[in-house]
Amino acid sequence: xxxxxxxxxxxxxxEQALALAQASGYAMFARDSATRALGMQLAEMGPGYARxxxxxxxxxxxxxxxxxxxxxxxxxxxxxxFACNSRNQNTVGAGxxxxxxxxxxxGDVLTAEAVEQALAGKSGIYDVKVSNQxxxxxxxxxxxxxxxxxxxxxxQADGLAPPPM
Length: 165
Prior knowledge:
Elements: H1 3-31, H2 33-37, E1 41-46, E2 49-55, H3 69-84, E3 91-100, E4 109-120, E5 123-131, E6 137-147
Antiparallel strand pairs: 1-2, 2-4, 3-6, 4-5, 5-6
């Protein structure tokens, strides 16, 4: 096989994986009432990757008038969930930790970026960085996933484009 053919095959495989991740993310978001109720938006999906955003509302503030840690955790956890389900294989969280580094404030737009660090067998490790609109790191989350079987989407015909996010 000569090199241009290998590169074209690799590019096609990457495009298929990206389309599957986007379609899986769209399907999961449509069924995820909790994520939508908190005003989270699915900004970007890729294989082993998800980026979500959320504006901090008045009903998300704690007694110190900063974003409640549970709300920040929910954003990080949702991004983690979307990243570990990006290959259309039903996957759940098996454990996680979070470190809070700075407060979220009313009106902040928080972004959680989840990146797969390892995937072996049925287990995966994902790191999620939550930052505000100024790029300040708010929290760091690490999640461990476990694949449970089944798929988000039924088998699709080759070339099916995902719905727009």
